[in-house]
Amino acid sequence: MPEAAVADGVVQLDLEALAERLAAELSARGRLNWHVASCQAMVEATGRDRLRDPGEAWRIKGSGRLTPHQLVYLREIWRWRDQHARSTNRPPFHIVGNQLIFELIGWAETHPGEALEQGPKLPRNIRDVLLTTLQEAIARAAGMTEAQWPERKQGERVVALSGGDLEKLNALRGECAAIAKDLEIAASTLAPKGAMEAIIRSRPRTLEEIIERSGLLRWQAELIQDAVEKRLG
Q1: What is the pLDDT of residues 66-83, one digit of tens each?
Q2: What is the fold of 54-148?
Q3: Can you say whether residue 2 is alpha, beta or left, with left for phi > 0 and alpha for psi between -120 and 50 degrees?
């Protein structure tokens, strides 16, 4: 075990010793290069320019599945969340998470004019001013005309997989899950669902194409290459 010191009742580990121990364990299992590649990918990702059009920042992940009518609810609820997050100097997800936003959109669209208390369960912090202004944001979206609805961005809509491709996706997910289980890692660590969908849609034929079209790291692509070839062959 790494050496530990006790200061004011708090155990402090020697982080360098811990890092060396973990690196040795990864190396013994032949996985140190996985860790190095994953860390390098994260470093490169943080260095990319992520500037976005402020007027389009409300288009969060998953918005491409929404109709123009639903997009107007997303825009108003997102602006409500952003305003309160800024005014209280808190991360937006501390106000409400994205999943709840999508639940609110689905409910608000089908229950116009109903009180929020009848809708999806809200966190305890959504009360008083937060609750009132959220209700106002939803009412504002409901009152907008079709001309005021946001337009879809070109290429934003994702076409659903056909029945045959959906079967291929489920089969590939099953094989990847089995590989991950044997490796004693999470299936999403080996191959996220989005990467597998990209593989099914783009039909890669080589290892390099799997990497390019799915966004997987080389070690991930190498581990699932046989499964991909089997399901797309």
Answers
A1: 888 999 999 999 999 999
A2: DNA polymerase; domain 1 (1.10.150)
A3: beta
